[in-house]
Design a protein that fits this description.
The N terminus is likely disordered. Helix content is about 40%, strand content about 25%. By secondary structure, it is an alpha+beta fold.
Length: about 300
């Protein structure tokens, strides 16, 4: 175990240090390791705007301990808040190994966070969770942070036990966390790539949920948060869009197209197509054949 490293002017836990208000970057106050787990305390003292890229080589948990004035967020994209982000002052984000993310802070007078990295990649599931709330995880992380800056830290087994408890809590997210979390970019790409690559196969909700590593109910909620529509509607939109290509570029009959795209019968295909486009597929095909779009 490495000895803890402390900044020379580390304040007591929960007390902002006396730094220049011009500070515009995160400063590390102290670091401590417990086996494969590392905890690092960071602070930001006075900042109108901070946009900092995050690249995680190991699974990483970021827990906001204090946030005074303004607001800080962890984002997948520098200019977009994560969907259904929790905006409390005690927000938490978990980034799997290899995740690219951003920390965005505006008009922050002071913030202090603990960044916990886990060396064993197999201990936690692959799902990325940004800006969520979990009172148990926050409390455990704050105890771990106190150990980092303590003048008389307890035995190493104490920190290791806190880390194990955090891992256990992360592996069993609450129902509320599940309701707030959308699909990660990686999960969404995996599902949509599968659908596009199997356009002529019969695709079930269970297939899509399995690719995302979620239950069907959790997947349905998360997919709607990520895309704005339920999975069956997104799949229907995709099939109708694919049917337009077949209607224009092939001489396949409506029956052949409907069966090829997984519709149980032509009438089902016709109803779906009419609902989305406003006209039956035969009429749509005829109108486009007579008035083809102008090539640019």
């Amino acid at each position: 175990m490495l000895a803890p490293h402390f900044a020379a002017d580390v304040p007591p836990p929960g007390v902002p240090s006396q730094r220049s208000p011009a500070q515009s970057k995160l400063v590390t106050l102290g670091t401590r390791e417990w086996g494969a787990m590392t905890a690092r305390i960071q602070e930001l003292d006075g900042c109108a705007r901070l946009l900092s890229p995050l690249k995680t080589d190991n699974p990483t948990l970021l827990v906001m301990l204090e946030e005074v004035g303004g607001h800080a967020e962890i984002r997948h994209h520098p200019d977009r808040s994560p969907p259904w982000a929790y905006h409390g002052k005690d927000h938490i984000s978990f980034l799997p190994a290899g995740t690219d993310a951003w920390m965005n802070a505006r008009d922050v007078r002071y913030l202090r966070q603990v960044v916990i990295t886990f060396g064993d990649h197999g201990l936690i599931g692959p799902d990325c969770r940004l800006m969520f709330a979990d009172k148990r995880v926050w409390w455990l992380a704050s105890l771990l942070a106190n150990e980092v800056v303590s003048d008389a830290p307890l035995d190493a087994t104490y920190g290791e036990s806190l880390g194990a408890a955090i891992l256990t809590s992360l592996s069993a997210p609450s129902d509320d966390a599940c309701m707030r979390s959308g699909l990660t970019a990686r999960q969404l790409k995996r599902v949509t790539d599968y659908v596009r690559g199997n356009a002529f196969a019969k695709i079930q909700l269970s297939d899509m949920a399995r690719l995302a590593g979620l239950s069907q109910s959790h997947f349905s909620r998360a997919f709607k948060i990520a895309t704005g529509v339920p999975p069956h509607r997104w799949l229907l939109n995709f099939r109708v869009a694919e049917s337009k290509r077949l209607l224009l570029e092939t001489s396949l009959s409506l029956v052949e197209i409907s069966l090829a795209l997984g519709f149980c019968e032509q009438s089902h295909f016709t109803r779906a197509f009419s609902t989305i486009t406003g006209m039956p597929p035969a009429v749509w095909r005829k109108s486009l054949k007579q008035n083809p779009p102008i090539s640019r």
